[in-house]
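Inputs:
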Amino acid sequence: MSVMSTTLDTDAIAAAQAHPNIALIKYWGKRDVPLNLPVVGSLSITLDTLWTRTSVRFGTDLSADRLSLNGREDAKQLRKVSACLDLLRARAGTQARAEVVSRNNFPTGAGLASSASGFAALVMAADAALGLGLPHATLSEFARRGSGSASRSIFGGYVEWALGERADGEDSVARPILDADAWPLRVAVAITSTAEKAIGSTEGMNRTAETSPYQRAWIDTQEADLADARAAIVARDFERLADISEFSCLKMHALAMAAKPGLLYWNAATVAAMHAVRALRASGVPVFFTIDAGPQVKAICLPEAAGQVAAALREVPGVLSVLETGLGGAAMRIPVADAVAA
Ligand code: PMV
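Outputs:
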């Protein structure tokens, strides 16, 4: 696409909010690293209480993109943010630089998918600021370029990110499969460490693909897991969703543990929390766990079990705190004042 220079309104500013999501059928592995194209499809739930709020202002007065994350200039994330904004600038035919102000109401970089809500909020705000009005599928594609799992945070409730076939990735986008209200599960997140993770997901995925002997089996068995999870969600069959989700989680970690050197994202409290969730379920409480590329344990349960599950996790040695949330909606525009307010 040719880039022409356009005169922007001085108020080319807008804001958006997006929620993190948690994969039940995991994404792990890239077939194209720059485009963030996955080797498998994945399926997630979008959360509600946790959010990223981001404002984007494009201005001809700016000589470079700027990013403030949680009140601090963030040079580390700026390169990825700029690359993502370039996709929207190309669509708008502008080269105007942007000032991005973003904040999360939950710990950043500790396995809680702040990059997912972050890039979803970024593309939605930038789309609005530039007056593009791009379809949600395109916003999902652009968010994916920032962080794979961000493709899913454009939508609310139960969301599937398609593997896609195209080399350009245009068909590797997310779509909603069921609204949050249609099956309002609850989530308790057991925080077992607030340290930044040692090995990021891209490095972990690449090492796994290059060295884990289970990579082929991972790819070959994913479609059956997705079909199982979809069927469980459509039927609101909690036990079925619990079984397939724990299976996918443990399979992803087994795959990554078998890399060279092995990736071990768990600490002692992670394992203790997994046992606590299994003990609860064995005693009849409708709950299961899932874990991403970090040490936090996410326990997913039916609404009536939420209090008991959170209380049990708080008792687990090494669990620092427990966040409780429900399932939430899609990314959306918000007033700029709400994004920048303290
Ligand atoms: O989107 P990324 O690069 O942060 O990778 C996310 C990977 C997992 O959280 C472990 C799984 C998933 O599907 O979200």
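Remarks. Residues 23, 26-28, 42, 115, 147-149, 201-202, 292-293 surround PMV (CB under 6 Å). Residues 215-234 form the longest helix (20 residues).
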